[in-house]
């Protein structure tokens, strides 16, 4: 297998989109170009396809970074391309869940789910899409990431001290990521806002 035929990982795609955001900040790309290329990056299957998305951009300066922590425990991957994915009721939330929505929506209701880890991590990415997460009451949420003409929000009741925490890394381009623990209130707010 040629090196350019190597399948791209989620980390490769995230790195490519981060380079696109940097290029926008430097004035090399406009927002429309970033959105178009981010969609191509998130749907790329191989590293050579990712290189094509970044071909006319200068090489980044390599930072000296610590190696990524080793993954432990089960991992779930969800990908919605022009489609919707919904999970609810009794199901198992793995230690890590990666969800990507491109021109689609992902809705994960975890209020009745079983958690395989005390500290689950959600890696969420959207391009012209939305991801909605409902967590059980009494669980904290730690939200990180970025939004390029999109939004990320956490609307939960304050958990008690020492409560378990779900870590959410959310990156969105023209999309939204919302985490809440009361789905009914979310429906009422969306109805009032006309969403």
Automatic annotation (TrEMBL):
All copies of domain Cell wall-active antibiotics response LiaF-like C-terminal, residue ranges: 97-154
Superkingdom per UniProt: Bacteria
Domain DUF1707: 7-58
One Pfam family recorded for the sequence: DUF1707
Classification via InterPro entries: DUF1707_SHOCT-like, LiaF-like_C
Name under which the protein is recorded: DUF1707 domain-containing protein
Organism: Nocardiopsis composta
